Amino acid sequence: MIATTFPHQIEYVTSDVHEKIELIVVFKKEVELKEAEAFLTKTKVKFREGMDSSRGRIYFYKTGPKFILTFETAQERKKFEKKYKSAEEVYEIYEPDWDIRKD
Predict the structure, then answer these.
(1) 50-92 pLDDT, tens per residue?
(2) Of 77, 83, 71, 87, whose CA–CA distance to 28 is shortest?
(3) Is the CA virtual torsion 44, 50, 54, 55 positive or negative?
(4) Alpha-carbon distance 53 to 42, whole Å?
(5) How far apart are CA 89 and CA 19, in angstroms?
(6) Signed CA dihedral, 40, 45, 50, 52: sign only
(7) Contact partners, residue 29, CB within 8 Å, separation at least 6
(8) Which one-letter DSSP state was computed for residue 90?
């Protein structure tokens, strides 16, 4: 637990710091953003636009919409990956590496 107080600042307390269970879903170039959002909405998984920086700029431009998905459990993540990795619209599904920065 971290608790600090400084003059004119609010006390900050945290006791539950945990790593998020995430996947990156990259759609094919020809898939429109609305189409990709509709695809993910049907899966009922929490998602937001974006990706990690591990793939580089060329990869970014040669692919379609990218999303970060957040799961409650590692089992849910594995189930999603297995079910959707071969979907026609999907270019790639991978685990993000937030420590790698390319380009």
Answers:
(1) 988 788 788 888 999 999 999 999 999 999 999 999 999 999 9
(2) 87
(3) positive
(4) 27
(5) 29
(6) negative
(7) 62, 63, 64, 91
(8) E
Domains and CATH numbers, the chain: 19-94 (3.30.70)
Write down the H helix ranges in 1-103. Answer: 33-43, 57-62, 74-84
Length in residues, the chain: 103
Average pLDDT score over residue span 1-28? 64
Q: Using CB atoms within 10 Å of the CB of residue 23, give its burial: 0 to 12 exposed, 13 to 18 middle, 19+ buried.
A: buried
Q: What is the pTM of this model?
A: 0.76
CB 55 within 8 A of CB 73: no
